[in-house]
Amino acid sequence: MKKNKVKELWRQGKPAVMGWCSSGNPYIAEVMAHAGYDALTIDWQHGVGVSQSSVVSCIQAIGNTDVVPLVRVPKNEPDYISYVLDAGAYGVIVPMVNSNEEAAMAGLACRYAPQGNRSIGGSRAALATGMDDYVMHANDEIICLVMIETTKALENVEEIAKAPGIDGLYIGPSDLSLDMGVSLSGWADDERHLAASQRVIEAARSAGVVPCHHGAGPAVSAKLMKMGFMLCQIASDVRTISAGTASGFQAFKEAMKENGVSFR
Amino acid sequence: MKKNKVKELWRQGKPAVMGWCSSGNPYIAEVMAHAGYDALTIDWQHGVGVSQSSVVSCIQAIGNTDVVPLVRVPKNEPDYISYVLDAGAYGVIVPMVNSNEEAAMAGLACRYAPQGNRSIGGSRAALATGMDDYVMHANDEIICLVMIETTKALENVEEIAKAPGIDGLYIGPSDLSLDMGVSLSGWADDERHLAASQRVIEAARSAGVVPCHHGAGPAVSAKLMKMGFMLCQIASDVRTISAGTASGFQAFKEAMKENGVSFR
Amino acid sequence: MKKNKVKELWRQGKPAVMGWCSSGNPYIAEVMAHAGYDALTIDWQHGVGVSQSSVVSCIQAIGNTDVVPLVRVPKNEPDYISYVLDAGAYGVIVPMVNSNEEAAMAGLACRYAPQGNRSIGGSRAALATGMDDYVMHANDEIICLVMIETTKALENVEEIAKAPGIDGLYIGPSDLSLDMGVSLSGWADDERHLAASQRVIEAARSAGVVPCHHGAGPAVSAKLMKMGFMLCQIASDVRTISAGTASGFQAFKEAMKENGVSFR
Amino acid sequence: MKKNKVKELWRQGKPAVMGWCSSGNPYIAEVMAHAGYDALTIDWQHGVGVSQSSVVSCIQAIGNTDVVPLVRVPKNEPDYISYVLDAGAYGVIVPMVNSNEEAAMAGLACRYAPQGNRSIGGSRAALATGMDDYVMHANDEIICLVMIETTKALENVEEIAKAPGIDGLYIGPSDLSLDMGVSLSGWADDERHLAASQRVIEAARSAGVVPCHHGAGPAVSAKLMKMGFMLCQIASDVRTISAGTASGFQAFKEAMKENGVSFR
Amino acid sequence: MKKNKVKELWRQGKPAVMGWCSSGNPYIAEVMAHAGYDALTIDWQHGVGVSQSSVVSCIQAIGNTDVVPLVRVPKNEPDYISYVLDAGAYGVIVPMVNSNEEAAMAGLACRYAPQGNRSIGGSRAALATGMDDYVMHANDEIICLVMIETTKALENVEEIAKAPGIDGLYIGPSDLSLDMGVSLSGWADDERHLAASQRVIEAARSAGVVPCHHGAGPAVSAKLMKMGFMLCQIASDVRTISAGTASGFQAFKEAMKENGVSFR
Amino acid sequence: MKKNKVKELWRQGKPAVMGWCSSGNPYIAEVMAHAGYDALTIDWQHGVGVSQSSVVSCIQAIGNTDVVPLVRVPKNEPDYISYVLDAGAYGVIVPMVNSNEEAAMAGLACRYAPQGNRSIGGSRAALATGMDDYVMHANDEIICLVMIETTKALENVEEIAKAPGIDGLYIGPSDLSLDMGVSLSGWADDERHLAASQRVIEAARSAGVVPCHHGAGPAVSAKLMKMGFMLCQIASDVRTISAGTASGFQAFKEAMKENGVSFR
After folding, report:
1. Mean predicted lDDT score pLDDT of chain D
2. What b/e readout covers E244-262, taking b as 16+ CB neighbours within 10 angstroms?
3. Residue F46 CB-density burial (10 A; 0-12 exposed, 13-18 middle, 19+ buried)
4. Closest CB to B175 among F86, F120, F122
5. Is the pLDDT of residue C131 over 90?
6. What is the DSSP code (8-state) at residue D67?
7. How far is CA D84 from CA A136, D63, E58, F147, in A?
8. DSSP state of B189
9. Do chains D and C touch (3 or more CB pairs under 8 A)?
């Protein structure tokens, strides 16, 4: 089984960066994978264009590069986790995990017995080296990240971090902000959010797992990494399109004005 | 039948701008349509993610905005033109048109009798106002642009411009450059390309049709419009993703350096 | 955020009618939307042709008209509700809700904090006006209807009606009939069903929510509206095809007979 | 190889009726097939929802009944004909055939050597009985109908009828009317159209092939059959939906009025 | 409603064999169905290529033969069961059932009231004979098999076998082996597995339900049937491709060697 | 641009073997690619499950291995060739090429100017190294094979072999046999076919291109390679399934008999 590059970076104490795919389009996913991220996450929770069949298509597309394919599953549900791992994902991001028990449910779903309860079946990830090899190594290579995105999760974060089978905590700043009453656009500089982030980092370190944070552009992501987070999303397909087309159109209008050509 | 906004702009002597969709993904197309372009072209010729079924899905997605849906067909072939117009496209861009006869084939395929030979059938575009209304107005609202992208086409451009049923000439700079021996990355400033552009503009004006040019970023597009082109593509989905993720990653690395955090 | 036309009708005390899409085919959905209904529901529960990816395709197709897109989710499950609302649905119909707690689970899944626990993410519905605007208004515009379709639900209907986050009760007559021992084809005139309907209307009115009823053709739907129901389904794609082709074939046979032409 | 029921009816001197599928949706196609038609045609020319992959899906769906699957191909092009026959269609309707040569191109594309030039390949239709059996019988069972839908075709109809490999002539009344200057909604009673129909019937009979006519509702179709046409389309999915939902909505409004309930 | 051929075999005391489809590809499913199995199971749990929409496509494809379509659902979840039965499956295989209560949940989800709680809706399976007929017979014809694949399930197997609504027990040897510490490749001859198999057979017989076992090639499946199992899977699409291409390539290399032609 | 492994083998005087994909299913394609072939051809001509969108999906799937993706296009049509090369195919097999002119049309469609007339556009194959690099190398790496499958092609084979832009001749034995009156199942030992094969080999060698032959199982393919063919298909997905399931079922029946268990 091919090694998980993100885990290897972590073993060396190095942070990893990832892209985010909400369109569920394999071609777009492949284009993004060529940006050179360590990982690319297919967002099956909020990615409007993502469905069960596009998950495997996107993983196949990403497999044309050496980027690690991850999937955010729609909810903390073992059969979703089972499916995406069978499809060849090297890890999952599990939303709305609020307790040690919930975290354990996610963590155990990522591991074959005796460590967990992942069901054996024809895995795409096993195609390259065979089922025996895959079953022997998958428990070590698969990443399981649980999302900390409610005040309840924050209160339980030290216990969540100790749940069996998980590799890290992943802060979801939008839902957490909404729940803490923090501004959706201002969390990056909000004291409450910074305190929460610090608490998550410490809980992760104490438990020997990895603190991660959903990003918000290059500058914020870099700042989060300086704080100690070891995985940040630094771009999404849909936002890159939105922002890129808006700024391109603006640049065009300005160039028209500079050229002295009237344009609405 | 709803009016074609691009044609209305042209009637007022105003240029129009458009986006370009190569992914064939309806969600991405809809996101792009919200950028505020006048038109959005689905590229069924070179758009790797585009297929027959995604053409209609993208047109339906674009229909959630007031952007005009256009399609570049795979070749100058009446049945492709028929399909995309039935699907609700308000115009076509037809590649590799090298003579008056070829241009007429495209132009007539866009018009119902007696002007042309478009076959009548259950058009999606007719859903809103009924088939009778659609057949009565479609010949006036549909745009047919033929691509000038070979030296042969350039030689025949004055005759091409007079072909029945066409609304404009659309320069494809990459293929034209390749054919003229002009650098693929330097055509925007190349004398031969500028001369060719000027000839196309004049041929179009003489024939009472509209000169159009495939774009290459905001600055070049603005310059082309200053020259007199009335329609330019100013952004594509795939290039926006490529460029946006690359520059975002670069910005992240610089932010890491500024923060004094080591990163490969 | 665009207003929800169905909610506006209700605010004016007017009933609304809707179509029903079981095929999951965007073209069929768009054709139905042109019939002029106030809303069109995509049935992800029993609609054999509906899947996760067709939900968003159908919503995009319906968006070419001003009909309100609703979705019946497969079960009372927050992640299904989250997905269809992110995809741009303006409301959900939630099957098999039997208690106040279950109704609250549905209702809260439709609302962002502080009213509920809907997770924030890249919503298609936010494309037009931006995420901030969408989050500010979605709680007011989204409709949450819970289905009353068991005797147990009927017993608890007054409590169900008071659940937070719900807008109305929606009777599912087939399952309810099956559970009450009422004939599947005769419920519209059955005393037990009429009594149940009356009870649901009163429970809804007392709680300040809206009584709704799945329809069974124009005449029955009109009768239900006379009783006080404020939303009825009056046609489905699959039944319209079945009934329309059967009656058309019958008419053809009769015309053949009138013409004196033998036909099997 | 299973016999072609439509050909068997013709051998017995009996006419056949067919449905028409423009949505390309397999579930809708299957629902239509249960209406009891002899054949069901998937319209890959003007059917906006039809694409290459939906053709085979619809044929598989229709195969759940004993209805004969036919396909109208996008144009008179051997590779389209080859694909749909490989996919299991029992016949093709070929649009815009204007001469004996064009008709022969269609006819020969439907037959294996030595009668024609259909290329051999893995046919779905051969699954049931094997390739040898299929190749032995396909030339006899496959139906090839060429469309007469221009004045030019009408002038050449006697020669077209004699083309090798074709089984019948199929009048396309909309395009023919447009080309003859006949009203799109009035052709069924127009003298010119009736004369054209008569000429096609006679040309077909003289050449030993079958006269067919696209239908326009039960009454017109029955009248056409009385004239001597042996195959008529009597319903399409999209029109059945349009007409059925419109009349249902109207019936609902009338029922509301009868019930004395105000409704817009 | 068409009879369930597998149930009829069982009523006659005869075992049934089935194929297994992991690709979710309708064409592959149809090819497999022509192998002459009694049933073909679409594996929505571990079949990487299977998704909600491919389930119905595969069932439609299988319907071109008289093979019985079954589906393994992703988990013991009533809405998955409801969907696949609506789509026309004649039975389900339900994974990870560990107690009488869990088995009852699966069993009741397969039956309409009063035997169970399956919700009524537009079933594809009802197309042929109508909803009334389908509802009258479905409870008798649908097969519900629950999987015994943990030591916990084995401990409870006698109680599981008595759960209402189930037709049989289905051993999943891989997960069971993993849980019992038996070798994944050696279970067929392992004493512990044989003892477990015997216990399942006896529990099934005592409760009047049918013992079934996932297969592992022709020889093992035949041995299992000799033991008394009444349904075995004897081939899967993906394994047939893997094994067939490997052995074909090997045969080619040997033929090259015999021919004296060098080949890597 | 990554080197074309098949061309490299040829440069070393070594033959190459390939698999064949008719299902168009990316998962099946990926499974086949793991068999270790040098190339895998997606058959868009006779592959019933293949469509425009599945071509790119299969190429993306194959890209998870180092197998070279080829496509047989539906016909000798530049826009099909353009599409599959843009999608990332490393070569095309072009059916029904009967003259030097037809071969040149195929060959030139595979080459950018000045060698040919392939249109430039956003190529998936260029993702890895950029468009400039791709355009510089594609003409050397792309394989263009034209099919010799009629007696007419055989008569012109020496001229066909000299056409610009082609890399080899590819015998299609089924169509050729049909056209020569040779038995479909007996061509491998037929004198006429052997003579034709010899002529193709010599024509290819004289012109400096590569002789190739569609295979028919390991033994025949090895024999063809001994004759001098440099590329053979040795397995297809659909045939592997058909043959594998049939022989597996037979083995099961025999094992049942050996076990003394009665089975139909």
Report:
1. 95
2. bbeebbebbbebbeeeeee
3. buried
4. F120
5. no
6. P
7. 47, 14, 19, 22
8. G
9. yes
Q: With an 8 Å Cβ cutoff, is E123 touching chain C? A: yes
Which two three-digit tokens encode residue F205?
């060698």
- The residue-averaged pLDDT of B125-144 equals 92
Domain boundaries of chain D, sorted by first residue: 5-258
Q: What is the DSSP letter of C186?
A: T
Cβ of F34 under 8 Å from any chain E Cβ? yes
- Give yes or no for residue C122 having a pLDDT over 80: no
Alpha-carbon span A25 to C88, nearest angstrom: 19
- For residue A114, whether the previous peptide bond is cis, meaning omega lies within 30 degrees of 0, is yes
Q: Look at E60 and D56 and tell me if their CB atoms are within 8 Å.
A: no
The secondary structure of residue E120, as a DSSP letter, is: P
**Which residue positions in chain E have pLDDT lower than 70?**
none
Closest Cα to residue B143, out of B175, B96, B107? B107
Q: Chain F contact for E114, CB < 8 A?
A: no
- For the domain made up of C5-258, the CATH class stated in words is alpha beta
Q: What's the rounded mean pLDDT across residues D139-167?
A: 98
Kindly give the residue spans of alpha helices, DSSP state H, lying in D208-236: 218-227
> If you search the block for the tokens 């129909």, which residue do you land on?
D197
Chain A / chain F CB contacts < 8 angstroms = 42
User: Which residue is listed with tokens 């037929």?
Assistant: F190
Q: How far apart are CA E237 and CA F244, in angstroms?
A: 9
Superfamily of domain F5-146+212-241: Phosphoenolpyruvate-binding domains (3.20.20.60)
Q: How far from A263 is each of A250, B15, B69, CA to CA, in Å?
A: 12, 8, 21
Taking alpha carbons only, the member of B79, B104, B80, B93 closest to residue B39 is B93
Has residue B116 got a pLDDT over 80? yes
Q: Do E56 and D27 touch (CB under 8 A)?
A: yes
Res. C264: pLDDT tops 80 = no
Per-residue pLDDT tens digits for A83-135: 999 999 999 999 999 999 999 999 999 999 889 999 998 789 899 888 889 99
CB contact under 8 A, A79 and E43: no
For residue B125, the model assigns a pLDDT of 85
**Is A49 within 8 Å of B35 when comparing Cβ atoms?**
no
Give residue for tokens 């009668």. Answer: D115
**How many C-beta atoms lie closer than 10 Å to residue F132's C-beta?**
12
Residues in contact with D225: Cβ distance below 8 Å, sequence separation at least 6, in sequence order:
C256, C259, C261, C263, D15, D232
For tokens 């009444």, the residue is E230
How many CB atoms neighbour CB D47 within 10 A?
Answer: 29
Please give the pLDDT value at position F217: 86
Residue D46: active-site member:
yes
The answer to whether residues D69 and D40 touch, using CB atoms and an 8 Å cutoff, is yes
pLDDT digits (tens, 9 = 90+) for C53-78: 999 999 999 999 999 999 999 999 99
* Contact partners, residue D216, CB within 8 Å, separation at least 6: D173, D188
**Model confidence over C167-191: pLDDT tens digits?**
999 999 999 999 999 998 899 999 9
Return the sign of the alpha-carbon dihedral for residues F19, F23, F28, F30.
positive
Query: For D34-46, b where at least 16 C-beta lie within 10 A, e where not — what string?
Result: bbebbbbbbbbbb
Please write the tens of the pLDDT for every residue from F184-208.
Answer: 889 999 999 999 999 999 999 999 9
Find out whether C200 and C229 touch, Cβ atoms under 8 Å. Answer: no
DSSP F67: P
The pLDDT of residue F78 is above 90: yes
For residue B41, report the phi and psi dihedrals to the nearest 5 degrees. Answer: -105, 130
Eight-class DSSP state of D119: P
Residues B190-244 have pLDDT tens digits of 999 999 999 999 999 999 999 999 988 899 999 999 999 999 999 999 999 999 9
Average pLDDT of chain B is 95
**Cis peptide leading into residue D114 (ω within 30°):** yes
Q: Which residues pair with B93 in a beta bridge?
A: B72, B145
